[in-house]
Design brief:
Layout: H1 3-34, H2 39-53, H3 56-78, H4 85-115, H5 125-164
């Protein structure tokens, strides 16, 4: 296996693992933890989390899972290192599911929460929470599972590439 392909696979694996951990962590701790909050405080908590999560550490894992998976696929094709290619493609597709789910579902819900403005001035925080919570949680589960499966696929790709070398 070429060194560059190995580096791309490891980087894809690590960034996918970061996203799998983050999204599943929300599923089993953050969302159940804030579920006890009243509606106004629940909205405030999500607004604050959504503001602070957009940072370099998050974006490097979020975008890196796609970029490194794509790089590993391309390198696998062009370096004629195809033993791991089916698993690498599976990892890329699964990372795309998590990425697209985030962009298409979770981000618009985050934007809706942010657009509500100051929670102290919200006329009906219960309606906003009812509109957002169940869908946000469902799609968070989807992206968490997708990234976990991407992590597994990329681990198999790395193993397959190593044993084929």
């Amino acid at each position: 296996m070429e060194l560059l392909h190995l580096i791309a696979l490891i980087a894809a694996l690590l960034s996918s693992g970061l996203m799998a951990g983050l999204f599943t962590g929300y599923s089993y701790s953050v969302m159940p933890g804030i579920a006890i909050l009243d509606d106004r405080n629940w909205v405030a908590a999500l607004q604050h989390i959504n503001r602070v999560i957009i940072n370099g550490r998050f974006m490097s894992g979020f975008l890196g899972s796609i970029a490194f998976s794509l790089a590993a696929v391309v390198l696998g094709i062009f370096l004629d290192d195809r033993a791991a290619l089916p698993w690498t493609i599976a990892g890329l597709v699964l990372n795309l599911v998590g990425f697209i789910g985030t962009i298409a579902k979770n981000v618009p819900l985050n934007d809706k929460l942010e657009a509500a403005g100051d929670v102290a001035a919200l006329a009906d925080p219960t309606a906003l929470r009812t509109e957002v919570e169940a869908t946000w949680i469902k799609w968070n589960h989807v992206r968490g599972i997708a990234n976990l499966l991407a992590l597994a696929a990329l681990a198999l790709a790395l193993y397959t590439a190593g044993t084929a070398a």
